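Open question from group meeting: does this chain pack into something compact, or does most of it stay loose? Before anyone orders reagents, we agreed to write out a predicted structure and look at it together. Recording both the input and the output here so the notebook holds the full record.
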Amino acid sequence: MPKSTPSSKEPLAPYLPAITKRTLSPVPPPLKWAGGKAALLPQMREHFPAVFGRYHEPFLGGGAVFFYLSPQRGVKAFLSDLNEELINFYIVLRDQVDDLLKEVQALHGTYLRLGEAEREKLYYEWRNADRSPEFKKWSPLRRAVRFYFLNKTAFNGLYRINRQGLFNVPWGGYKRPALYRPQLLRDAAAVLQRFAVFLKATSFEIVLDNAQSGDFVYFDPPYAPVSATASFTTYTSGGFGEAEQRHLASVCRELDRRGVMFLLSNSDLPWVRALYTGFAVFTVQARRNINSKGDKRGPVNEILVRNY
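Structure tokens returned:
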């Protein structure tokens, strides 16, 4: 379990609360993630239930809420996401952290020794590995190393695939990407080992099988796009459109009927608000940094929906 005092080289993020002897230490998420909730935690904290049974997060992504909430509350977690490469990374991080660190350290050293052109070439060699039939034969460990390397070196940490299911984010060109962070990865692995009792690549409907009365579910789905060009929902080959948003709302209503608490994040759009009529809706401000035009980045309104 992470120590109560963080490493001086890798301080905990400023949103983390003071740690006392009676609480377990949250840890920062190990991945960069577009739309991740680390920066929103100061606004979200007051919306978490005071008491709940078990924690469920079926759109795991970067996992900022899990890595914050489960260790602090000491609750078991049911985690899932449709992204198979993401879930494979978390499973390897949990079960093979020493092997993962060894491979990442070697790749990190190689990357830093290269010039800019060679770094870009190496990036595309790893990125385009999924174009080869041999990719399906890769070990879970090698796939996890690839996923982590791409996460730290791709443009803005995006995860995006094309219609063929192939990762297509361009190289980010960062001078010193934060690849080898052993304490951060070990702390995240310890949290997964202790609290993640369910970790699977599957659809969000799994909460209907796992969640019980008194449990808490946090939904962070691909957001409804605020404009025709603002969608970054090509996260899995199936996409996540209006029909999926409506189905998600129906799942929330079923959880409410069963006595399960839920909190949901999404875009602040009239039709999205209408899906959750009857529930409490709150506005929060998030900063978005994935627009290709710098003057289009900045604070945007999002909503939090909850049934408690």
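Observations to bring back to the group:
The longest helix spans residues 97-113.
The beta strands are 55-57, 77-81, 196-201, 216-219, 261-267, 280-288, 298-306.
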